[in-house]
Amino acid sequence: MKIKSFIIIGVVLFGLISCNSNHSFDASGSFEAQEIIISAEANGVIKEFNIEEGDRLEEGQYIGYIDSTQLFLKLKQVRAQINAALERQPDIKVQLSALQKRLEAARVEQGRVEGMLKGGAATPKQMDDVNAEVEVLERQIDALRSSLTIQSRGINSDVAALDIQVLQLRDQLDKCRLASPVSGTVLSKYVMAHEMVAVGKPLYKIADLSELILRVYVSGNQLDKVNIGNSAKVMTDDGNGGYNTTTGTITWISDKAEFTPKTIQTKDERANKVYAVKIKVPNDGRFKVGMYGESVFN
Q1: DSSP labels for 98-161?
Q2: What is the pTM of this model?
Q3: Mean pLDDT of successive 10-residue segments in the chain (298 residues)?
Q4: Residue 217 CA: distances (Å) to CA of 22, 24, 247
Q5: N or C: which end of the chain has fewer CB within 10 A?
């Protein structure tokens, strides 16, 4: 009788444990974040790199810099070239002033000779000579003005090209300053201070963990319960045999079926193919990337 009693008690306890552990859900999957790998935008040695994995960074926060000595010296050189070019810029008004005065004097003489010619005190040859001198001076002024204008335009073009180089160098110098382009938590750090980096070399990985994505998989006969914008109950183990529950929002449904991942269980295990679904979940710190979760669609 005692043995039978123990057996009955054992069966009852097993049934209770089985009932408690049996939790109904529509789909399960794992949490993921939208991770961003930040890469170097300049070549050189990292002189300072003040981040560690797990650090919370704000957008625009300064975290270090890449050696920019050569870029700074190049910028000074280009600026010196600009100053030298501007010093060669001709002063058209000043350089034409001498010829302008000679032309004014020639025109005065032209008027005087013209009056004398009318009074018979000058010859036609004298009139022709003074007219020729006025014409020559006018042509010299036009030629010199044209030459100086072309020279000035050439110098302005050179300065404009150098100004563009200044902008390029300033941009490169700005890229030597390391600042976080987004807010988030540092997941991985790939380089250390005093290492040599090149453009495109990954520096660190960052993600905004205030919201995570639970990627689950549903079978075709579950799709009528899943719509973008709908809410979904999300559950994770609380470590005590129960579940932490929160509410997420369905943000994406795959339009292409795929074979069920080996690590994922769906409600209908007979389905050969499933559809991926993303559920955005607010994270108060309980959820971690890679953690498994379950969902129930409302």
Answers
A1: HHHHHHHHHHHHHHHHHHHHHTTSS-HHHHHHHHHHHHHHHHHHHHHHHHHHHHHHHHHHHHHH
A2: 0.70
A3: 41 38 76 96 97 96 97 97 93 90 91 88 89 93 92 94 97 97 96 97 96 92 90 90 90 87 56 86 91 90
A4: 20, 15, 17
A5: N
